[in-house]
Amino acid sequence: MSKFKRVSRKVAYENQWISVFEDVIKRAEGEGIYAVVKRPDAVTICVSSPSGLILMLNSFRYPTGEWSLELPMGAIDAGETPEAAAARELREETGVVDAGLTLAGCFYALPGLSDQRVYVFTASAAEESLRSADPAAREEDLGRAAYIPELEISDLIKQGHITDSLTLCSLFFSGVHIARNLSGPGS
């Protein structure tokens, strides 16, 4: 197994949210070019009620031109801990506070392209707290909150209603029951 050695790096594009680098790399097979995307680490929060409802948001995603059913999520600000970011994002995106956050795991969002880590938190909130979530009043790209029964998650994935990779990985880390019948109808 060969290890990459960076020979040089130049900034191909940069703004306040993302940096794209073009690296010249060297390995046993010779030199090549590798694109690297730098983004701040992020958090996702899987909030459930005692009755098994999962709080999700309908977010409009400009690159796909579609609405996406997702868990609350967002970037970790400079100097902020993952737990503080999770509490802030949950409050900003849903209005839910004091939900008792627990770190469930961490993963790389796209390890072949970026070193961005995603910290997955679980939380629980009373159903009335979940139902009072009002993302539309907070950010223009957030639609309505959705309250999904945990046992319906796998069907929504199969039907193509949950397609966001961070949400899919985070549901797995959160222990949400998604394995049931994912192979399709009649199996």
TrEMBL record:
Q: Which UniProt keywords apply?
A: Hydrolase
Q: Name one GO molecular function term.
A: pyrophosphatase activity
Tell me, which GO biological process terms does this entry list?
Answer: nucleoside phosphate metabolic process; ribose phosphate metabolic process
Q: Which Pfam families is this protein grouped with?
A: NUDIX
Q: Which GO terms describe its cellular component?
A: cytosol
Tell me if rRNA processing is a UniProt keyword of this record: no
* Entry keyword annotation includes NADP: no
Q: Please state which protein family the record places this protein in.
A: Belongs to the Nudix hydrolase family.
Name of the featured protein: ADP-ribose pyrophosphatase
